């Protein structure tokens, strides 16, 4: 069959399979030697995922770090359905993928293959490989949910699990003298919600504390993404990245995410207190598998 001028054979095939062509931002991997030469703008273009929250939209970015997809569903007065992306070459989004979702704003509802789960702020839903239909809605359009989602390739289907914030495993960390008193909340991890490779949780900072993840660490076995929220208007978080002896910073606004390659530290200090979701994928599900740097060795 003759194709219209400008329609490639691959695109024609996707159209025939009835896969919608929805824009997906792509983030490629960076070598640490190259990173040393990057200026501010290049660091931002390679690692920052901003403008994530778009009303009545599911906004996803595909990273080539362990093929992690980072996104936000922000239903206001409409129900949003997770759509398929041509990049996945799958029949549906979760055909070969799993997903973790944390609500960071108003109360919301997620319906998975007809079963509904209500998520208040800081609750988490895990959806295993094979779920065909995922729909997002808000309880109150004037205080809509902001569903932050991470999705990674999966080899088997684990059950859908809702974990409220009070059920998450909590670890207190930090001291007031180091301005880093915080609670690490673990949801999807080796001893929590079972997954193929996704590890996910969030950290809340005590009012007055501004530092996260200091002493800093790397984990060459896993990439990581931080998503900052509850950053007050007019404030920012200085997020530090790079190899321990070659660090750079990137300024983060509320609802910005930043990708951390396996060779990079990931730590932050805010101009006020804030919270953030962390999520990882890669070689193992062991939260404690970290190579911690001494503060005095960081450059
Ligand atoms: O504040 C912290 O410390 C963290 O939240 C650390 C992250 O959970 C992390 O980087 C896990 O690898
Ligand atoms: Zn980490």
Automatic annotation (TrEMBL):
Pfam family, one: KduI
Similarity comment text for this entry: Belongs to the KduI family.
Cofactor: Zn(2+)
Protein name: 4-deoxy-L-threo-5-hexosulose-uronate ketol-isomerase
Functional summary from the UniProt entry: Catalyzes the isomerization of 5-dehydro-4-deoxy-D-glucuronate to 3-deoxy-D-glycero-2,5-hexodiulosonate.
Transmembrane helix as UniProt keyword: no
Gene of this entry: kduI
Classification lineage: Bacteria, Pseudomonadati, Bacteroidota, Sphingobacteriia, Sphingobacteriales
Residues holding Zn(2+): 217, 219, 224, 266
Organism name: Mucilaginibacter segetis
PANTHER family associated with the record: 4-DEOXY-L-THREO-5-HEXOSULOSE-URONATE KETOL-ISOMERASE
